[in-house]
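Risk mitigation, structural track. In case the binding assays with iron/sulfur cluster fail to produce interpretable data, a predicted complex structure has been prepared as a fallback.
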Amino acid sequence: MGSADHSVTNTVSRRLPRAESWLDDAPCRGMWWLTDIPPDLTRHHARASVVAAMRPALELCADCPFTRQCLERVAPRESYYDGVCGGICWRNGEAIGGLTGVIAGRAA
Ligand code: SF4
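Fallback model:
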C-alpha cells in the first residue's frame, strides 16, 4: 500500500510542502482542520456566517509570525482557496473577512 495522501481537502498544511520548517512553529500546527471551511457552510451562506465560524482559526493567525509565508505558499486567489490563510478567510479565492469583520463583496 502506498503512502500517498489522496484525501481531498483544502487545508493550509496540504498546500505547504513539509520541507517548510516554519510550519512546525505555526500556531495552527496540529490543528490544520481549523483552517477548513466546514462542509455544512456552503458557498450560499452569508459571508458573516462563514467568517464567524472561522473565528478560531483567525485567532490563531493573529498570533502567527508567518502570515506572509502562508499567503505566498497557499496563493489563495490563484488556487481558489476555501479556508483561513494568512489571517484572512477565503472563499473560492476571494477574501471575505478577518478578525475585524466581513469584507464587502465584489460589485456585480
Ligand atoms: S497564518 Fe494562520 S493559517 Fe497560516 S500558518 Fe499562520 S496560523 Fe496557520
